[in-house]
């Protein structure tokens, strides 16, 4: 059996956590990541018949969520109360590899959380979002939650309207509409660690790969860690530009005609219903 600490998926996960901390997205124990692993890649490093312990499926409060649709799926997940800055230095205590039990109410710990810990309190919300994203794109394997400073700040001063919020981000940088042509979903402030916010986020995830939690942070989804990280990174860069501009008058901006040129060049399908000009809104599916 190969050394789990040398597994490419685990090393990449650790590097991602370190980068998120370095960028200020995950202060203290804020934020969490869950990564759906392929059974065959895990089997090279762990005995899948050996369960370290069984952990009840719960968030901050007891959860009514049934994860049975994901039964047998294996996830690499950050631990509750763990600091992202420590993940790369001590992965065995700060992250874990778990398998969803057949009853949908428990997880089987296959590796990690060696200090007696458990998965993040947002784990139920992550699983709800995984179910939603997998129904849209079976290749989506990563859910990432963090607190990017400028996206968070933007929710205090910008209308919490999905079309307007998305359009503003698209205007801030040429790459934005290419990276997230689906725009961003936006939720009002909701109590975290509960089934309620998990279900609301999952519902948004059926339409968007990025969901803004107002006055809190963001949920991102992607096919792999790089794609998911890059998605949030691009949104955060756009929000940073927006905040730097502040109340100063804008003399130049990306127009919807410019955006259409990018759409045609890259062959993407954006949310035309988020456009303002009628000639483009008519293109909405």
Q: Look at the helices and sheets and give the structural class.
A: alpha+beta
Discrete helix count: 11
The CATH architecture of the largest domain comes to 3-Layer(aba) Sandwich
Please indicate the percent range of residues in DSSP E strands (runs of 2 or more): 15-25%
Record the strand order, biggest sheet: 2-5-4-3-1-6-9-8-7
* Nearest-integer average pLDDT: 94
- Low-pLDDT segments, ≥5 res: none
**What are the secondary-structure elements, in order, as H or E?**
HEHEEHEEHEHHHEHEEHHH
What gap, in angstroms, lies between the N and C termini? Answer: 50 Å
Query: Could you tell me the radius of gyration in angstroms?
Result: 19 Å
What composes the largest sheet?
A: 9 strands, mixed
Helix content: 25-40%
- Total domain count: 2
Describe the 3D structure.
With 285 residues, the protein is of the alpha+beta class. The protein folds into 2 domains: 1-121, Class II aldolase/adducin N-terminal domain (L-fuculose-1-phosphate Aldolase, 3-Layer(aba) Sandwich); 124-285, Class II aldolase/adducin N-terminal domain (L-fuculose-1-phosphate Aldolase, 3-Layer(aba) Sandwich), CATH 3.40.225. It contains 11 helices and 9 strands. α4 (123-136) packs parallel to α8 (195-205), α5 packs across α9 (225-245) and α6 (162-172) crosses α9. The chain is elongated. The protein starts with 7 loop residues before the first helix and ends with a helix. The mean pLDDT is 94.
């Amino acid at each position: 059996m190969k050394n789990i600490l040398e597994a490419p998926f685990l090393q990449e996960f650790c590097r991602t956590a370190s980068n998120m901390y370095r960028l200020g997205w995950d202060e203290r124990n804020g934020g969490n990541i869950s990564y759906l692993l392929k059974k065959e890649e895990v089997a090279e490093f762990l005995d899948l018949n050996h369960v370290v312990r069984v952990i009840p499926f719960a968030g901050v409060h007891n959860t009514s969520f049934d994860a049975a649709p994901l039964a047998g799926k294996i996830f690499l997940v950050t631990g509750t109360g763990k600091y992202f800055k420590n993940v790369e230095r001590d992965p065995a205590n700060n992250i874990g590899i778990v398998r969803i039990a057949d009853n949908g109410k428990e997880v089987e710990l296959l590796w990690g959380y060696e200090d007696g810990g458990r998965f993040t309190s947002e784990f139920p919300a992550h699983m709800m979002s995984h179910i939603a994203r997998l129904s849209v794109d079976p290749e989506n394997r990563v859910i990432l939650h963090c607190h990017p400073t400028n996206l968070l700040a933007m929710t205090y001063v910008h209308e919490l309207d999905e079309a307007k919020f998305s359009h503003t981000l698209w205007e801030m940088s040429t790459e934005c509409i290419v990276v997230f042509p689906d725009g961003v979903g936006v939720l009002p402030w909701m109590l975290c660690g509960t089934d309620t916010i998990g279900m609301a986020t999952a519902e948004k995830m059926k339409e968007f790969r990025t969901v803004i939690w107002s006055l809190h942070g963001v949920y991102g989804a992607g096919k792999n860690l790089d794609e998911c990280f890059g998605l949030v990174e691009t949104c955060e860069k756009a929000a940073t530009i927006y905040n730097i501009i502040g109340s100063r008058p804008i003399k130049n901006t990306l127009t919807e005609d410019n955006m259409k040129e990018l759409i045609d060049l890259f062959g993407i399908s954006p949310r035309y219903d988020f456009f303002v000009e009628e000639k483009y809104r008519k293109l909405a599916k």
